[in-house]
Specification:
Structural class: alpha+beta
Number of domains: 2
Strand content: 15-25%
Largest sheet: 6 strands, antiparallel
Pfam families: DUF932
Order of helices and strands: HHEEHEEEEHHEHEEH
Distance between the termini: 31 Å
Number of strands: 9
Oligomer: single chain
Radius of gyration: 19 Å
Mean pLDDT: 86
Number of helices: 7
């Protein structure tokens, strides 16, 4: 495993994402809006033995919204922190205080070998959305229970992905199906198959799960050159920093992997219903 994961303290969280500690909504939200303080939920999740290990905060163009913007936190369970496996199911918390993102809790997977954080497609685990009203304490506990109960099923799904081998044509078909998630139609890549190139020796494998991770990592971070057919200029892709785009790419790649698994293995069951 590439590194040891340590939970983030409140001091570390405040440095990385001050919006987690916002104690009131943005002034333009409706009077019907019921505020949910993210740090309050983090403390509640700690009480349920889920600890924050990673955090992202969106940038803002309107400086008046700084401190109210979209943010998301990844949590790992205490049992996984003290005894980590190659793949760890994570709890993902999304929120904002300016109505740019509804409060929700989703499932994810952390892959130690490459420090990849995948996000599970909604067709597999539908995001447990918690409205900014109602009995949020019980809502959060319900969401935690759903992810806890679905963990073994999700790890079984990963094992099935690892058992499915893709040939080169199938890898390229996966790539072609996924390209619109990352590149608009007017962007033509010089060599799109570069996105199938693993970044480490351990990923020189042909199974569906490894290919999914290679594409996810390369889509989010690799620089690849191409031609913009609208501007008639060359371009080089940049690392994805948008939380919304990161989530869109992650969920889209997983969705395609689900379809491939259904085609390659007649016994594969795609739906994963949260308890």
């Amino acid at each position: 495993m590439s590194k040891t994961i340590k939970p983030l303290t409140n001091e570390q969280l405040r440095i990385k994402a001050p919006s987690l500690f916002q104690d009131q909504p943005y002034h333009e939200v409706s009077s019907k809006y019921h505020f949910i303080g993210t740090i309050d939920i983090i403390e509640q999740l700690r009480g349920e033995s889920w600890f924050p290990v990673s955090v992202s905060e969106a940038g803002v163009r309107d400086l008046s919204k700084d401190g109210f913007q979209q943010h998301y936190v990844r949590f790992q369970h205490f049992s996984d922190l003290i005894n980590p496996n190659a793949n760890v199911v994570e709890l993902l918390l999304f929120n904002s205080h300016d109505r740019s993102k509804a409060f929700s809790i989703s499932a994810g997977v952390y892959r130690y070998i490459c420090s990849n954080g995948l996000i599970i497609a909604d067709s597999v685990f539908d995001s447990y959305k918690i409205k900014h009203l109602g009995d949020k304490e019980n809502d959060v506990i319900d969401a935690v229970n759903k992810i806890t109960q679905v963990k073994p099923k999700l790890l079984e799904k990963i094992s099935k992905f690892e058992s499915i081998t893709l040939n080169q044509n199938e890898k390229e078909s996966f790539l072609q199906s996924a390209l619109p998630l990352r590149f608009e139609n007017h962007l033509e890549l010089d060599n799109p198959t570069e996105l199938l190139t693993p970044l480490r020796i351990e990923d020189k494998k042909d199974d569906l799960y490894t290919v999914l991770n290679i594409l996810q990592e390369n889509f989010l971070s690799s620089k690849i050159s191409g031609y913009n057919k609208d501007t008639k200029r060359k371009f080089t892709s940049k690392q994805i920093t948008s939380i919304s785009k990161d989530v869109e790419i992650n969920k889209g790649l997983w969705e395609i992997a689900e379809r491939i698994a259904n085609i390659k293995d007649g016994s594969y069951e795609s739906p994963l219903i949260a308890a």
